[in-house]
Amino acid sequence: TLAREARANANASARAPADDAGPKASKQPCFEFQKHGLCSKGDRCRFSHETVPGAAAPGATREAIGAAYSAEERRVSEALRRDLLHKHRTSREYADLLQKREKLPAYQMRAEIVDAIARHQIVVISGDMGCGKTTQVPQLVLDAEILRGAGARANVIVTQPRRISAIGVAERIAAERAEPVGHTAGYAIRLESKRSRNTRLLLCTTGVLLRRLQVDRELASVSHVFVDEVHERDLSTDFLLIIVRALLTRRPNLKLVLMSATLNASVFSDYFGGAPAVSIPGRAHPVRALFLED
């Protein structure tokens, strides 16, 4: 008899209205939904999933972004913008490295590259070795986001097929920004990472990003994903492309940039439904042949 009464009480509790189980949903807007158009908690979220008028869209002006961002995000975005402009004006080290960067073909095409990434969710970039696509393109996108007042939500991940590449590229980008590694630019590899709360551009191996996708399937805080050396076609890279292609349908604000050093960009463009491709020319250097017989 006691067992039957216990089961009856349990069934009655299960049939109770959902409102009795906890607090009612708040009328405050859901931050994740407003940013990405999708909430990972779904119906369990306590906040409103209604579109907030004036929410910022990709490519919006600083005024529109300021109206959609919270006070803390506006403060962080303005601080990032102020620091970048101050570095442009006062840092001799930054200015010297910027002159070298300006000679790279990727930097010279910065307007076309940034515009293509802003207008399309997926972009394929191909360029010869030495054109600067690995070190310059992520920086150009990050600086464009900072200068338009969207730095608080800019979170760029760049994958590399090898650990030494992730460390080397992170060190080079940090040097070009006249900062220590782990400030704006950092890296994360297996059993080692160098980043901070200020890191906006993270270099990592493909395996590290796959591991993150296991616990954060929506990459909720990530704004751009760059897959470098995509032409190598190893197992981890192909698996990552399969996962990210499915993720893009749920994350319309997530940007994917595929970078390749070869001319098979059409293969990746077709795989992602005819994504636009940008080709960066290489630099030709004079070569003089010297023969041992002479």
Structure, explained:
The chain has helices at 2-14, 31-36, 62-68, 71-90, 92-101, 105-108, 110-119, 133-147, 163-176, 206-215, 235-250, 265-271, and strands at 122-127, 156-160, 185-189, 192-194, 201-205, 224-227, 255-260, 277-280. The protein is α/β, with parallel strands linked by helices. Strands 4-3-5-2-6-7-1-8 form an eight-stranded mixed sheet, sandwiched between helices. Helix 8 (133-147) packs across helix 9. The chain is globular. The protein starts with a helix and ends in a 14-residue tail after the last strand. Residues 13-27, 31-38 and 51-58 have low confidence and may be disordered.
Would you kindly provide a brief summary of this structure?
This protein has helices at residues 2-14, 31-36, 62-68, 71-90, 92-101, 105-108, 110-119, 133-147, 163-176, 206-215, 235-250, 265-271; strands at 122-127, 156-160, 185-189, 192-194, 201-205, 224-227, 255-260, 277-280. The chain has 294 residues and is α/β, with parallel strands linked by helices.
Q: Report strand order across the widest sheet.
A: 4-3-5-2-6-7-1-8
Helix content: 40-55%
- Give me the count of strands: 8
> Span between N and C termini?
107 Å
Q: Which series of helices and strands comes N to C?
A: HHHHHHHEHEHEEEHEHEHE
The whole-angstrom Rg is: 23 Å
Structural class: alpha/beta
Low-confidence stretches: 13-27, 31-38, 51-58
**Binned strand content:** 5-15%
Average the pLDDT over all residues and give the rounded result.
82
